[in-house]
Specification:
Blueprint (H helix, E strand, L loop, with lengths): L4 H16 L2 H27 L1 H4 L2 H31 L3 H6 L4 H31 L8 H28 L6 H8 L15 H7 L3 H15 L4 H32 L1 H4 L3
């Protein structure tokens, strides 16, 4: 069987124009190499300039990884549950019923909590025999951190599903990439002071930054900084109100133009 160069080129052009017509796809291609370079560059910079911090690196990094996963899993669990309705073309059928938009949001929050809990329990427990480290040593502050990060993940999830409702499935890559865009400036593995000065102000506008700064303070000094928790919750409330407003506007716009029925793969 002869291979057709024309057919191959035709398909290549099809896929190329698919990428070219979608800004989220282009950004996704460029994002991961840039993200890895920035994140690990900042981690290396911090380790080189903080010799007394190195002795406690293991506990701080494991705690950072586990708490980051709370944020990541809560956002992903929220967004994926919504995307499953998109992929199955079930969104229109859901809203033919008396279901209200905020009822759906609350159901997504609930299933996100369940998925996050199931995902994290094994990792948290295995860290004890594998690395002789228990995240529970943070005591009651762990509950504060956990609750704040869950809220942040859900808020980001609301922003993401609002974008999907508005722009369609071309924006679904945000469900995987958006959270990592914030990782380098969230002070997960290093303090805010490691960031360039012009980025520190942006970092301090994020609720999760105060959680990770507070986590390190608890691990290194055994003291809870209530101010960090208050700032984190306050920012979550602020962004949460904005997220809900944007979601309701996006939903109403999609309903008016029939986007809820037409959205799908």
């Amino acid at each position: 069987m002869m291979l057709s160069i024309k057919r191959i080129i035709a398909l290549v052009l099809r896929y190329f124009f698919l990428i070219k017509s979608s800004a989220p796809r282009i950004l996704e291609l460029m994002y991961w190499p840039t993200f890895q370079m920035i994140l690990w560059g900042l981690i290396s910079k911090h380790l080189m300039t903080s010799s007394d911090w190195v002795a406690q690196t293991s506990g701080a990094l494991i705690s950072g990884v586990l708490l980051w996963d709370v944020l990541f899993r809560s956002q992903l669990g929220f967004s994926l549950s919504f995307l499953e309705e998109i992929w199955s073309r079930n969104l229109g059928q859901l809203f033919v019923s008396p279901l209200r938009p905020l009822e759906m949001v609350l159901s997504l929050i609930t299933i996100s909590f369940i998925r996050t809990f199931i995902a994290l329990v094994p990792a948290v427990l295995l860290a004890i025999p594998f690395y002789s480290f228990s995240i529970f040593q943070m005591g009651i502050s762990l509950m504060f951190f956990f609750a704040s990060l869950l809220m942040t993940g859900w808020i980001l999830g609301i922003f993401i599903i609002s974008a999907i409702i508005r722009f369609g499935v071309s924006a679904e890559s945000l469900a995987w990439g958006a959270i990592f865009a914030l990782a380098p400036i969230s002070a997960v593995y290093y303090p805010v002071t490691t960031l360039p000065i012009w980025l520190r102000g942006i970092s301090l506008c994020l609720p999760q930054t105060y959680v990770f700064e507070g986590m390190r303070e608890v691990l290194f000094t055994n003291q809870i900084n209530i101010e960090y928790f208050i700032k984190s919750v306050g920012l979550n409330i602020f962004y949460g109100i904005i997220a809900v407003i944007i979601f309701l506007i996006s939903f109403d716009g999609a309903r008016r133009r029939g986007g809820l029925i037409n959205t799908g793969e």
